[in-house]
Specification:
By secondary structure, this protein is α+β, with helices and mostly antiparallel strands. It has 9 helices and 23 strands. The protein folds into 3 domains: 120 residues, no CATH class; 137 residues, no CATH class; 119 residues, Resuscitation-promoting factor rpfb fold. Helix content is 30%, strand content 27%. A hairpin with a 5-residue loop joins strand 20 and strand 21. This is G5 domain-containing protein.
Length: 450
């Protein structure tokens, strides 16, 4: 009997143990099945960049709304086109938080749904773009990028460049500036055949001398100066910044005053393209000589180059006495030429033709060339009547040296005027280092030929 009782007790104990174990396991499964919606969210659950792990759905909704409100209170998305800048305010974005939570998947990341008012954005964009580019902007791509930034609750480290969203069709790339120089230099035909176009990359300095070295071409100083002058005149009515540019002692034929650029073994033409997009210099043979056209996206502003009134310096006369001439006889040894000084400025206008700024680009000085006159000796000539810097027959060399000294003085006056006109760029010196993007004015290394 005792053995039967022990078996019954063991059976009852085993059944109870199995029951309690099964009940605990089934109870957990049932709880997870019927009460999962009210449980806290598991690890890995996210809406956009916001982690919702360990939160109830109500807490998750409140967390998302708080993060969105924090972003909208401080955020704005800057946009730019060349020199023009504006911002797209956070108020133009609508966050669909409830719809985002409705699409949420436990343990997985889900997107934060955002809408942007593109009609208001387009109004901002149109103020930045030239009228000819408004129809070329890819608004859908821009909308996707704006929504993506807002959905990640981020602000860009750099302004959104609208040039990226402009299609590169024929209607976008246009001739933006051109210049023609009269010349009959025979080397230009070779230049046109080997260099029909030069690409000026965005955010880079272009050096004509370096370009020629890389191309393995060699031209005379006269030909290079003609090409450089045509390029210089073409880029002046743009936002390009002149880094180095030089002039001669005398203005070459065919080049207008204010537009010369001297290039040789010691002198260069360098300029900086501050835009993010490239521009192309196109060279063509014109009836009168060489024509250069700059092709690219139209500029945000209009640039007008003005060459001021020319200030003339009359040449002085140097008299030299020669024993080879009869008394009273005169002979012109060298014809003088007037010196010239001119100021070149660049004015910037907006779309409503309002003056934005005016800057001095250069002050070009060409010293006068002296008139040298030979005269025969007069009987009884004294120092008292030599009022025009005469020299005796024994000292013509000294007088010519005096004329050279006066010429040097005129050159020094021109160099002094150059030093006084120094427009500058932030972050760029004459050593050819790349300037920073916040360059505001042009720095000109305007040397004269010694």
């Amino acid at each position: 009997m005792r053995s039967i009782a022990a078996v019954k007790l063991f059976a009852i104990t085993a059944i109870c143990t199995i029951y309690f174990i099964s009940f605990s396991q089934i109870g957990v499964l049932a709880y997870e099945t019927f009460f999962a919606d009210t449980d806290r969210l598991p690890a890995g659950t996210m809406i956009g960049p916001i982690s919702l792990a360990g939160k109830t759905k109500q807490e998750a909704l409140q967390t998302v709304e708080n993060k969105v409100n924090e972003w909208k209170a401080s955020a704005s998305i800057p946009v730019m086109y060349q020199e023009k800048k504006d911002v797209i305010p956070a108020s133009l974005f609508t966050f669909q938080t409830e719809q985002s939570l409705a699409q949420m998947v436990s343990g997985r990341p889900a997107p934060l749904f955002v809408l942007v008012d593109m009609q208001a954005c387009s109004a901002i964009i149109q103020k930045l773009l030239p009228p000819s580019l408004v129809s070329s902007i890819n608004l859908k791509k821009l909308e996707n990028d704006l929504v993506d930034l807002a959905a990640r609750l981020q602000m860009p480290t750099q302004p959104l460049d609208l040039a990226v969203y402009v299609s590169r069709g024929r209607e976008a790339l246009q001739p933006v500036s051109s210049a023609t120089i009269q010349t009959s230099n025979s080397e230009l035909s070779e230049w046109l055949s080997t260099n029909p176009a030069i690409v000026i990359k965005g955010k880079q300095i272009f050096s004509l001398v370096s370009y020629m070295k890389e191309a393995g071409k060699s031209f005379s100083s006269e030909a290079m100066s003609t090409i450089a002058s045509a390029i210089y005149q073409t880029i002046l009515p743009t936002n390009f910044m002149i880094i180095e540019r030089n002039t001669s002692r005398e203005l070459p034929d065919g080049i207008e005053i204010g537009y010369e650029a001297k290039v040789d073994d010691r002198r260069d033409l360098q300029f900086y393209n501050p835009n993010t997009t490239a521009y192309t210099l196109v060279f063509q043979k014109a009836k009168a000589g060489l024509r250069v056209t700059l092709v690219g996206l139209p500029f945000a502003y209009q640039y007008v180059v003005k060459v001021g009134d020319i200030e003339y310096f009359e040449p002085r006369t140097v008299v030299q006495y020669s024993p080879l001439l009869r008394p009273g006889e005169r002979q012109l040894k060298q014809s003088g030429k007037r010196g010239m000084l001119v100021k070149v400025t660049r004015e910037t206008y907006d779309g409503q033709h309002h003056l934005v700024r005016a800057e001095t680009i250069a002050e070009d000085f060409y010293p006068p060339t002296y008139t040298i006159e030979l005269r025969g000796l007069e009987v009884g000539d004294t120092q008292s009547n030599m009022s025009e810097n005469p020299t005796s027959p024994q000292q013509p060399a000294n007088n010519e040296q005096q004329a050279n000294n006066e010429t040097k003085n005129s050159e020094q006056a021109g160099e002094k005027q150059e030093n006084q006109q120094s427009p500058s760029t932030d972050g760029q010196s004459e050593n050819g280092q790349t300037p920073s993007t916040n360059v505001s004015n042009s720095q000109v290394n305007d040397n004269r030929e010694k």
